[in-house]
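Incident review: delayed structure delivery

Summary: a single-chain prediction request sat in the queue longer than the usual turnaround. Root cause was a stuck worker, restarted by the on-call engineer. No data loss occurred. The affected request and its eventual output are reproduced below so the record is complete for anyone auditing the incident later.

Affected input:
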Amino acid sequence: MTSEPLNTFNIFNVNPDPNEILSKKKLHDTEGKVNLIKLFKYSDWIDLILLIIGIISSIGNGIMQPLMMVLVGDMVDNYNYTSENNSMIDEEVNHMIVEEVKESVNKVVVKMVYFGVISMVLSFMRTFSLFVVSQREGIRVRKLYFKSLLRQDATWYDFQESGELTTRIATDIKNFQDGIGPKFGMIFQIFSMTITGYIIGFIKSWDLALVVLATVPLSCFSFTGFQMVAMKYETKALSVFGVAGSIAEETIGNIRTVQSLNQEHKFSEEYEEKIKENEHFNAIKGQCFGIGFGFSTFFTYATYALGSWYSNIAVRGKGGSKGVSAGDVLTVIPDIDCQSTVGECPNECNGNIKFEDVQFVYPTRPSHQVLKGLDLEIKKGETIALVGTSGCGKSTTIQLIQRNYDPNSGKITIDGKDIRELNIKWLRNQIGLVGQEPILFAGTIRENIILGTREGETLNEEEDD
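Output delivered after worker restart:
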């Protein structure tokens, strides 16, 4: 009775040579870098499917990040809209603006949640699929590596260090797995994120995108150059580390012979020499990585500074153009001219107010109709109260009586006369308004009270008291 080995994870049960490469071609010693395609030459169809899933997920995850920044920008724009328009005196308009901003922000937040969930799923798919690919490839390459070692003849072994060969199983294959694992997907993620970011940048502000693009070649060349030098020294460090491992393995494996010959010090010095060489190469590699990363960080912040500087210039330029166009205000005749002397000025005002089928929407929010066919009659001496939720038109009704706005349709009359036919100064002098919140201008209380007197009237001491 025979027992078969138990596979704890079937997806890692791989065919050591699915493409039958070893049976087709005799192995030869090769030097130099391996291109990207050769990294996956031992892959089967399962590996290729997982690899495609990982690459697509990486690209999708890279696209999501710039889109998330667009949503953050939309949210900031909504709050800027509130701060710019919240200085209006009309409380009802302010309330509508705040509600509209809340609604817009809520929509942005919902989109951000959706994007976050999509990004989480894509990140999981990228990490899982590429990790499985790296493990399957690592298992397969280890089997092929060991099988290849057994195929070599004695002449080939005469030129190799046996200890170095076994050490490379742990170091080289681990690096190989790191190179085709989740880190491999980061290449596509960063690439898609960069491309998407610049596409959005050119759509939003092509001139600013061109300005910040100027520092990208400097950042890429500096980082890539130092990284290439660092990788060269990393290869040397790995080679020396393999030799050191070979010395340690041979010494420990033949420790009785070494001790009988009193050569412990000699082998210790050889091992220490190789370790120092490895440390030296790693130190140079670390310096190269550090300098490259430092230059990359410098150019990144330089990009921020350059973008802020150009944005400031652009905003000043746009502000200047707006200042020029603001001069056109001098020639604009408003529909409701508070300085106009035109209009009827009756000798008396009884105060009979009537709204007849009044329709009204604010110009800043044309989609929201505040008053829909309001019919209201207020007779002389009557006291009425308008009750309702915020935004239902209470303050708007007062605004229309004061002629801060004109209704879109219908009419408002006082003592049977359309208020649009009355002199606006005379009309507003007949109205006393106490706002929900007191508004005081700079100065004394007496000076604020005098602002409400009619032209030519004075405030005597008794009234002042």
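Verification: The beta strands are 353-361, 369-378, 409-414, 417-418.
Action items: add queue-age alerting; document worker restart procedure.
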